[in-house]
Specification:
Distance between the termini: 61 Å
Oligomer: single chain
Number of helices: 10
CATH topology: Beta-carbonic Anhydrase, Chain A
Strand content: 5-15%
Shape: globular
Structural class: alpha/beta
Radius of gyration: 19 Å
CATH superfamily: Carbonic anhydrase
Strand order of the largest sheet: 2-1-3-4-5
Bound molecules: cobalt (II) ion
Number of strands: 5
CATH architecture: 3-Layer(aba) Sandwich
Length: 213
């Protein structure tokens, strides 16, 4: 069987399995969504969102792009954050990077990659901000892993820079922004334990959006 046809076979099996556990499963799903999480991760096929979290349909609002970047001028990710935070009222926003990330690796190479250049620039900017720390790491793999972690931290910081996250948190105590790294080699999810309150305070000292006062 061709892989393309197999997808539809898999889907039939999945529907049957879900209905076997709960006859009303899809009827309930169609009533609406109320996810607690917004997950922003890498498009890498190995770093699945729901599967690695053990989550099912309706539980996670998902956005993925190359190297889990949150760019201020990317209407796509900004719309996802606005919708998830202001309308779905998610309680947690997660930036989830992963070790062995090809996007981060590419940003570490001296190479012209065409239209990928402006996207990967976001990661080179992370390198520039943390140059002192990264340049001090002599082992290339260790440096690569650290850049992956710092990229997660900077993209989480970019989430905190948005007015919608600041306003919603001040008004309701949510969302909390988290930074995670998925380790492809072990399957483990690593919590970088970012201090959200402290980061928010630092960010508001500079990125203070007047409407929040
Ligand atoms: Co990646």
């Amino acid at each position: 069987m061709k892989s393309y046809q197999k997808v539809f076979e898999n889907n039939k099996k999945w529907v049957a399995d879900k209905k076997a556990t709960d006859k009303e499963f899809f009827a309930k799903l169609s009533e609406g969504q109320n996810p607690e999480f917004l997950y922003i991760g890498c498009s890498d096929s190995r770093a699945t969102a729901e599967e690695l979290m053990g989550a099912g349909p309706g539980e996670v609002f998902v956005h993925r792009n190359i190297a889990n970047v949150v760019s201020n001028i990317d209407l796509n990710v900004m719309s996802v954050i606005e919708y998830a935070v202001a309308h779905l009222k998610v309680k947690h926003v997660v930036i989830c990077g992963h070790y062995y990330c090809g996007g981060v690796k590419a940003a570490m190479q001296a190479q012209d990659l065409g239209i990928l250049n402006p996207w990967l620039r976001n990661i080179r900017d992370v390198y520039r901000i943390h140059k002192k720390e990264l340049d001090a790491i002599t082992d290339e793999d260790a440096k690569y892993n650290r850049l992956i972690e710092l990229n997660v931290e900077e993209q989480a910081t970019n989430v905190i820079k948005t007015a919608v996250v600041q306003r919603q948190y001040i008004n309701t105590g949510y969302p909390i922004v988290h930074g995670w790294v998925f380790d492809v080699h072990s399957g483990n999810l690593v919590d970088l334990n970012l201090n959200f309150e402290e980061k928010l305070k630092d960010i508001q000292a500079i990125y203070n959006l007047g409407s929040l006062k």
